[in-house]
TrEMBL record:
GO biological process, alphabetically ordered: adaptive immune response
Keyword check for Signal: yes
Coiled coil start-end: none
Domain Ig-like: 21-121
Classification via Pfam families: V-set (PF07686)
Ranges that cross the membrane: none
Signal peptide boundaries: 1-20
KW Signal (keyword) present: yes
Any one of the GO CC terms: T cell receptor complex
This protein's name: Ig-like domain-containing protein
Length: 121
């Protein structure tokens, strides 16, 4: 029997300095069948070079760093691709597992200190 689970998406924008930035990602919860492919999309606009990450919050747990464009581009079968030309940082997985259920955050920031965050819906 196939199990249905949910990927809930949110975005966080980290700002520093004078660089104008915005972030967009799929906002509605995604119901995905176990074994089906997963695509979580994140696009951004920034005037500087972005620092991009994905965080995940599993049910009943605190959020944790999941993937980064600069260091860690693969985790638990998910792969991340940063495309500077299309200003996107999507993550994919060939076959979803029930244990993948959670709240996924796409985060963009610059490298300036004193960053802060605010949710984007």
């Amino acid at each position: 029997m196939d199990v249905i689970f949910t990927f809930i998406l949110s975005g966080i924008l980290l700002l520093g300095g004078n660089n104008a930035q915005s972030i967009n990602q799929t906002s509605a919860p995604q119901l995905i069948l176990e074994g089906a492919p997963v695509l979580l999309e994140c696009t951004y606009k920034t005037s500087g070079y972005p620092y991009l990450s994905w965080y995940v919050q599993y049910p009943g747990k605190a959020p944790v760093l999941f993937l980064q464009d600069t260091r860690k581009e693969e985790e638990n079968g998910f792969t991340a691709k940063h495309d500077i030309k299309t200003e996107s940082f999507h993550i994919r997985k060939a076959q979803a597992e029930v244990t993948d259920s959670g709240l996924y955050f796409c985060v963009v920031g610059d490298t300036v200190n004193k960053a802060h965050s605010s949710p984007v819906t």
